[in-house]
């Protein structure tokens, strides 16, 4: 098996739609964050940018570490596509890996992850001031939710299935106050 592949999904706004393009590189002995920052064209410590590790997957013979970054410094670069809100799901609770996993679904997961971080992470919320239009598109299309709070088949909004919050539609619960202040930017 080869070493991990680092993948960065670079987000930008395309009129009124969220767009992304992907860049990949082998780890080459460097830390994954360093490789991702290089792929994204983001200098270390750049406050107006966000780079976050959002997922990993097994693809053929190697692990792919996925990061999301914004803004895309080359937003007019070829290969951009619009982010669709499709989410991938595994077959059941013992087979969590989807049979097919498209890059569009990976991008949707990354955007949902960013929406949650904006609601719960002060540094990400602060960074969102610099690129409001991209964040408005994320907020308009991706509900900030924990990984297990996906809509049940045939239902619209995510609900908790069991436990003390059973039946609620607010999976960020105690973070709602943070969400309110972050979304009023």
What's the gist of this structure?
The protein has 185 residues and is an alpha+beta fold. The protein has five helices and five strands; from the N terminus they run ββαβββαααα.
What report would you give on this structure?
- This protein is an alpha+beta fold and 185 residues long.
- It has one domain (5-183).
- Helix content is 28%, strand content 22%.
- It has 5 helices and 5 strands, in the order E-E-H-E-E-E-H-H-H-H.
- The radius of gyration is 17 Å and the shape is globular.
Oligomer state of the chains in this structure: single chain
Unreliable segments of 5+ consecutive residues: 154-185
How can the largest sheet be summarized? 5 strands, mixed
The helix/strand series, from N terminus to C terminus, equals: EEHEEEHHHH
Q: Within the largest sheet, what's the order of strands?
A: 3-4-1-2-5
Structural class by SSE content: alpha+beta
Shape: globular
Task: Work out the helix count.
Answer: 5
Q: Rg from C-alpha positions?
A: 17 Å
- Secondary structure tally: strands: 5
Distance between the termini: 46 Å
Tell me, rounded to a whole number, the average pLDDT: 78
Give helix % range. Answer: 25-40%
Strand content: 15-25%
Number of domains: 1
Search tags:
185 residues, alpha+beta, 5-stranded mixed sheet, 5 helices, 22% strand, globular
Element layout with pairings:
Layout: E1 5-14, E2 17-26, H1 32-40, E3 50-59, E4 62-70, E5 81-82, H2 103-120, H3 122-127, H4 132-141, H5 176-183
Parallel strand pairs: 1-4
Antiparallel strand pairs: 1-2, 2-5, 3-4
